[in-house]
Write a structure and sequence with these properties.
Order of helices and strands: HHEE
Strand content: under 5%
Bound molecules: zinc ion
Number of domains: 2
Distance between the termini: 62 Å
Oligomer: single chain
Radius of gyration: 29 Å
Largest sheet: 2 strands, antiparallel
Structural class: mainly alpha
Helix content: 40-55%
Shape: rod-shaped
Length: 83
């Protein structure tokens, strides 16, 4: 894929070996792996669940403006809230 064949991949690998050094390559691989694991953990962590969706919006039956849950009458038009 990307128009790369095996020779190109080998060249890239060789350049990586030269740049990072052969000894550090496994280290880089493992730190990359642990970074991915940490990311997955944070995604799957039950402590970081998205907050529950806000309750359905209550709107005034008369003027259709949003109302607070505990408002009995609409402050905008004075209409009593529907049950
Ligand atoms: Zn209203």
């Amino acid at each position: 894929m990307f128009g790369l064949g095996m020779p190109e991949l080998l060249v890239i690998l060789l350049i990586a070996l030269v740049v990072f050094g052969a000894a550090r390559l496994p280290q880089i691989g493992s730190s990359l792996g642990s970074a991915i694991r940490e990311f997955k953990k944070s995604v799957e962590s039950p402590g970081r669940e998205v907050p529950p969706a806000p309750p359905e919006e209550i709107v005034c039956g008369q003027c259709r403006r949003p109302l607070q849950k505990d408002w009995i009458t609409c402050p905008h038009c004075g209409t009593k809230r529907e049950a």
